[in-house]
Amino acid sequence: KRMLKHAVAFAAIAVPLQVFVGDLHGLNVGEHQPVKLAAMEAHWETHTNVPFYLLVWPDAENETNTVQAIGIPGLLSWIAYGDTNAEVKGLKDFPAEDRPPVTLTFSAFRIMVGLGTAMLILASGAFVLFMGGLRWRWILSVLAATVPVAVAMWIFVMHDYQKQRVLTFLDPESDPLGTGWNIIQSKAAIG
Predict the structure, then answer these.
(1) What is the DSSP string of 84-100?
(2) Alpha carbon 53 to chain centroid distance?
(3) Which of 10, 42, 159, 173 has most Cβ atoms within 10 angstroms of its Cβ?
(4) Listed residue (50, 39, 40, 42) closest to 78, CA to CA
(5) Helix 136-152 and helix 102-132: axis angle, to 10°?
(6) Positive or negative CA dihedral for 161, 165, 170, 175?
(7) Residue 133's pLDDT is what?
(8) Sign of CA dihedral 5, 114, 156, 40
(9) Which residues are CB-neighbours of 63 under 8 A, at least 6 positions away?
(10) d(CA 152, CA 113)
(11) For residue 40, which of 49, 158, 48, 53 has the smallest C-alpha distance?
C-alpha cells in the first residue's frame, strides 16, 4: 500500500514533467532537424502559421496526405518554434534521399504521443482516485488489467530494436561495453 502511494505521487509529478520535456524536445527538433519534424508530422509544403492536424495519414509515394482533417491553426508552428506565425519547412524542400521513412516516422511519433497522453491520463486519474479515497483493490484491478495490454504490445507492436532497448534498460550489465555502457556510466555518476 505504501509503495503504491509513492508510485502514484511520483507519477503525478513525473508524467507532467515529461510532457514539458517533450515540448522542449519539439523545439529542439524544429531548430536542428527540420526534415525529421516534417516527417513526424507528414508535412509536405513549406508554409507559415502551419496547423497541427489531429487526423492525418501520409502517402509518401505521392508526397501528400490521403487523410488530413481537424487542423488547429498555427499549432505546429508554435510547437516547433514557439511562434504561431513561424515557417515550417515541408518535406518537398528536402531531397528524397535525405528524408526519413515518412510513414514509419509519422506512425512512431503519433504512437509515442498517444502513449504519453495515456500515461498522463492514467497518472492523473490514479492521483484523483488516491486523493478521493477509492479502495486500493479497485485501483490495483485497473493496473492489473494493463498487463495483458503491455504483453500484447511487446508481441505485436514493438520492433526488435525497441525490445532490445527495453531489455538493455532493465539489464545494462548484459552488454557493458555495448548498448548498456551509457546506462552503467549514468548509474556510476549518480552513485
Answers:
(1) TT-EE--GGGS-GGGS-
(2) 16
(3) 42
(4) 50
(5) 170
(6) positive
(7) 76
(8) negative
(9) 44, 91, 92
(10) 19
(11) 53
Q: Say what the pLDDT of residue 126 is.
A: 77
Q: Can you tell me the distance from the alpha carbon of 21 to that of 113, in angstroms, rounded to the nearest whole number?
A: 13
The confidence score (pLDDT) of residue 89 equals: 92
How confident is the model at residue 92, as a pLDDT? 92
- Write down the pLDDT at residue 180: 85
Please, where are the H alpha helices in the chain? 2-32, 34-40, 75-81, 102-132, 136-152, 160-170, 181-190
Beta bridge partners of 59: 64
Q: Which residues of 16-36 are buried (b: 16+ CB within 10 A; e: fewer)?
A: eeeeeeeeeebeebbeeebbe
Place of cell 525529421: 36
Radius of gyration of the chain (CA): 20
Report the chain's mean pLDDT, rounded to a whole number. Answer: 85
For residues 127 and 11, is the Cβ–Cβ distance under 8 A? yes
